Fold each of these.
Amino acid sequence: MRVVIVGTGIAGLIAAHRASARHEVVLVTKAELAESSTRYAQGGIAAALFPDDSPAAHVADTLAAGAGLCDPHAVEVLCTEGPERVRDLIALGVAFDTDASGALARGHEAAHSARRVLHAGGDATGLAIEVALLRAVKAIAVEVHEHAFLRDLVVEPGPDGPRVTGVDLLGPDGAALRIAADAVVLATGGAGQLYAHTTNPAVTTGDGIAAAWRAGAVLSDLEFFQFHPTALAVPGNHLISEAVRGDGAVLRDEAGRRFMLDVHPDAELAPRDVVARGIARAMAGQGGRPVLLDATSLGAEYLARRFPGIDAVVRAAGFDWGTVPVPVTPAAHYWMGGIRTDEDGRTSVEGLYAIGEAARTGVHGANRLASNSLLESLVFAWRAADALDAPWREPGIADASVPEESAAASGAPPFTRTALRELMWERAGLERDAEGLHAAAATLAAWSAETPVPGGASGPTDASGPADAREPTDAREPTDASGHEDANLLALARLLVGAALRREESRGAHYRSDFPDTSADAAHSQSWRIR
């Protein structure tokens, strides 16, 4: 079987390594092989590896954080198979940190009931994993295409409906390239570039999720975008890991008051959505200025040893965080929604698999538990690679209805990616309401009517849901990778805003100030496109 895997973070690399033993693997990445969100992951990987912990406890913590929208079976898979998969990472050469006795060191992060988070290089866990997996993949026979942009999926009629049979790429020179495949695995990450403030690298433009939607795959839970509470409030994307607060740092307003004590019993270690909104409200109360992360109790020597990467970034920005608090702000971090899959990575379109942040496996629900993302990528990429040998089976994903069209804004400002990111931050960020979401939907509809889109098809005709592709299209097409990225971001923005409008409650990372209560109905949202 010929398998094309798009994306080279932990999910894509694990799938490539695992699948290569039985299949011909083609690995595709839009940048260089080593560039992905994985290499920037600071917090660590959670797994119940220790005698005073258990998969059952990890399951309970994950379900609690997910606010009623986790798939219990998927969570069970994650937490029971996770320890063995972490041991597989160690066998592949990932050197996790150890304590003075030589045993694995473990950290504590928000909403975990036990110290179960492993780190490597202090705050360089993702980088250590990426380096080890790249070394392992380079040692096997895998065809690699770097600087190759996923323009679209190749979809052909099959006996049981549409089937994905390959990928259309833009090569490094901009030339079109089609690669045929028996199966395509999307490991393309999330879409952090939807927002003006993000911890994600520039490559996270939702290309795989948008391509899957155009192919007819069901997307789910797009309204749930997690905002990390603490990004350094200076230009650039500089995350300050939750592990810093796990080790004892606290949050203060500009008057020095530890305001999270009034927000949640767990204060700085409350679930991420609670901490992020607490910071946002504190900032609003002081004219939008950043709050302060106070790690001075830990001392400069400890901070440099425990968090060497963060220490270097903070000091390069001009702060001696061992002696003075540093300014922080929330930033878009992780998308819980994405391409809906079963426990083996299968999507609703035959031949198409999704893993990593691009997938909506069901383990995160409405709010991801800290340090579960690397584990999710590891566990479900492994399962997807093994499932390639099995006959395709329908994953049991129901189709969603297609809402009616909504009106575009008159006099909308010209479309730019910067304008899109600012609009999403202001109208569909940490706090949302109907007025802001409707305004965003109208502006996005106006931009969509004027923006070239892949395949010549018009974008979603409705800001609150997907489009019917049988409607007339114009033949416009983006001319380069950047244009394709813009189109992908615009389409996903419209789908996210539509999902946020339809969810008239507050749950997990989705907060509606006009619907602050949580509904008794814990239904999932879905979006799909009729081919």
Note: The chain has 13 helices and 18 strands.
Amino acid sequence: MLGYVEFAKIRKAPYALTLAPYGHFWFELQATAQTGGISEEPASEEPALDFSSWSDLMGGPVRPQLEHVLPQFLVRQRWFGGKARHIDHVAIRDLAVVPDLDVALLIIDVRYFEGPDEAYFLPLIRLPVELAPACLERYPQAGVAKCRGGRGEIVDATVDEGLCQWLLQVVGQGLRVPFVTGTLIGTAGQSFAALRGDESEPLVTERSSAEQSNTSVRFGEKIIMKVFRRLEPGPNPDCEVTQYMSDERRNAHVPTFVGSLRYAPREGEDTTLGMFQNLVDNQGDGWSWTLEELGRYYEHQATQPFAQGLRALLRRPVLSSLGDFLSSEAMDVVGLYAKAAGTLARRTAELHIDLAAGAPGSGFAPGAMSRSDLGALSQQLREHAGQVFDALKMNIARFPDEVVEHAALVLGRRREIADRFRGMEDLDISLKVTRIHGDYHLGQVLRVMDDFVILDFEGEPARPLAERRTPKSPLRDVAGMLRSFSYAAQVGYQSFVARHPRDAAPLEPWAKLWENCVSAAFLATYREAVASTDLIPSGNAELGLLLDAFLLDKALYELNYELNHRPAWTRIPLLGILALCRELPG
């Protein structure tokens, strides 16, 4: 999920900086990145097709030829989510030819040897042979196949300005474009005309090189289009929540909804292909800004002795001790960031209050979780924990010695963690559940002056769409942000001591102090902001138990992610789980 990073940064990078799928770490794309054992380096020789026009895809030999080469193209794409699975074959399900452009819009089905099929949206364009080299030099992963006889080259059409301008027109004019068996439907939001301006004046387009599960294209300094690649029937949560928050709730700290593109099949539910929203002028995403602040913090604190009076604040703040942190001299040490954490907490609370204000039948009506529902949730969290522990046990042999020690300690907490989740069953409360962000962390907010804008409401992309739209406790988002503060403190610390190894031991308590003070400022402000609602339990005991359960579950999710994507980073969630186990009551 692209975090709409500052486009100035994207333009300067030969391979754009992008967010990791979990969203916490920045990394630079390498031309020879390996994913799932399949090289993402462009093929040395692209296949060639007997292609003369897009109507050839309706029959004849070119259709199976294209279907045959598409797997090779897909595994090179950042947005393709099936790299760890073996593709059996790809089939074109539906197709539309774009008028006056040498472009076709494809809905394709990817079928695997094991597991369920997946559907993807793939617009393709045929570029003349004289234009293709420059395009592929800029977007080396976009090439699909050459056309025999010098008839051009087939590439991903999101690189083409003409197609992007046409898609914006489809939304603005509310067009319905026929596919062979379905229909593309454009829908303009309430703010489309104001943000688009004079339609006779084209907005220069620029595709972002930063990719995750979607593709982003900027229109001037006004609008950004997000093209959803993997398709699932039903409303897309990002599009759905952005439109609700913008058009219904007028929330100024969420991007303004501009419009959407939907594919309506002949039978079944519509699928969202794209969303348009305003381009937010910003100073970077919350994650990169936080790391910059931490760099300055560690630079200063490296020369300061850790005062004995601050040691009482090295234990994680619990609800009853938030005041001790807020009134301590440590808040002055943390400085600007503690104030920013409070601002972010208020914006988070406003988001949750708006998400809980939906009318019945709107898709945003809140619900209640009974004691029996809490029991079912407890069981779900225990099952998730069991899966993560099994994965950790299977991978422990490949860790370095110091990580093996942490992993063994975490495995030794398996029963204890299960018991903590089981404790939710004893809560005698009716818990309010609402739509939530679902994948909330510092990479999902933009720093805008001294404030924040919240974005990317897709939820955790690995989870089914229906699950991402299911109402949940807002405390899950709170736990996600608290864990993100913890990640930032550790990543910033490790980055600094890698350059200044002698400062490792003296800085360790300063890292923990920063995490605890920032978490206390966020939690205290959030709790105050929702005090007049019933979004969270009012009692310290019930609230603390639920929050601790969600913190543990999030840390386990992080561990599972790192095991699957970045084994070298497993130390951070392992330490987080151990810290939570040590510091939770009992």
Note: The radius of gyration is 25 Å.
Amino acid sequence: MLRAPPLPGDRLAAKIAGRSPTIMDTFDFIVVGAGSAGCVLADRLSASGRYSVLVLEAGGSDRRFYVQMPLGYGKTFFDPAVNWNFRAEPDAGLAGNADHWPRGKLLGGSSSINAMVWIRGNHADFNSWRDAGNPGWGFSDLLPIFKAVEDNEAGADAWRGKGGPVHVSDMHHKVHPLTRLYLKAGEQAGLPFNPDFNGAGQEGVGIYQITTANGRRMSAARAFLRPAMRRSKVRVETDAMATRLLFEGRRAIGVEYLKGGRNQTARAGCEVIVSTGSVGSPQLLQLSGVGPGSLLQGLGIPVVQANDHVGANLQDHLGINYTWKAKQPTLNQILRPWWGKAWVGLQYLALRTGPLSMSMNQGGGFFRTDPARERPNMQLYFQVFSTVIPKAGERPILTPDPWPGFSIGLSNCRPESRGEIMIRSADPFTQPRITPNAYSTEGDVAEMLAAVKYLRRIASMPALADVIEGEVLPGPSITSDPEMILDFRKRSGTVYHPVSTCRMGPDPTQAVVDSRLKVHGLEGLRVIDASIFPSNIAGNTNCAAIVTGWKGADLVLEDAR
């Protein structure tokens, strides 16, 4: 019989459902969340045909035009149908701004609304995970998984994979001519050309690989979940909001969720796996009595396992763009006018090519703000359009400025600042309190100041200087260190890579899960998603989240034998 401590959420769910919880089927594994890691888990755990898997996803289908069209993610940036639209707390580090935090609320999770840049992370990032007491998580341990995941258009070699579920497109032959000038300027500024950021080394400038196939987004849902859904032992419930985990003693035995106005329950014969991301995973654990004891008690939630690190240790990449007006046409001139939109739309519909088939970030790179650093601490993004003039209600990817412009952006790779994500109430439908604490250390401020100065250095190189009419943002009047610091505090924001809110580590007084991703102090419960990263990585986090799902599935299957 399913038992759980009574929570205030019981009364709320009963009120919403209008009836008592309904006992549903028993599955070997319940995966809560169909995001980047959850989709992989569904596929890998069910592949042998031995185990049954239930996947609970609070959102709906990913079969939407603007989800499948790569550049369409500008339309999903604020869309509540596919986006949780979280809002962080006003942050002193961001000059009091309350940052918008988009997270995917659909099959594929954030892999269905992200910018599709495929970056593994620096080799040393994963070695630091291993060296922190997490055996099996070093780069050499993960490289076979990175390769197995990929179907890289550039072909297989010592670093790249071929034939895997995730098609990775090589964009070298498709980028705008201005991107070539950016690469040349980067080299003139002292950065080497890097043909593959996922290869032997990460530093330098180059063209980003992206997760598309035949002009369509290659989300985790497309790569992993859709094949899994064809199996008889896999059941995917969409619009199914998990409200809490159920326990017998210290063992997780099931999940309570709301679907179609009914409060329902499912039982796990083997394990419950929480995979709802760096916001959702600590939120669900806390709602279920796993988290900071004083917080839970103050909200009337009985404590199943006290752990102050559930929701703590939040790390995120912060980014900012510098923008210039160009002397020659950029994508602004084709993506803004109605006839240009019509042309690229027809090009995409007929051939699955053109700007709509690509990411907004064509070029990029990694650099060190101080040569004494052992590895890059900043990431670059080159965008062949500008969006200084916003359009209300959507990210202005498809409505750029009326004049030719381009932007070079950057984000920090390993910020020192730490924040937290904590529930506000026992109501599972109340968004948690997100407190990033951006730029809260002198080190973070100093490295960002050095980084934005480097953006201007790249733009001053002959390759780009010859095509620049003038700097638009922040503008030539912003020159002193205090002015530049205030500017990046006002204009910086998340680049959507939150991690570490259920971090992995051997010490239960310092971490939430162990190296096998089992929640410390409990049985039958794991967290498998980017929230377990012990520390952030240099680069976009989707690839590493997918690999975490693959690695996590291997660990689950090993223990199930």
Note: Confidence is low (pLDDT under 50) at residues 1-21.
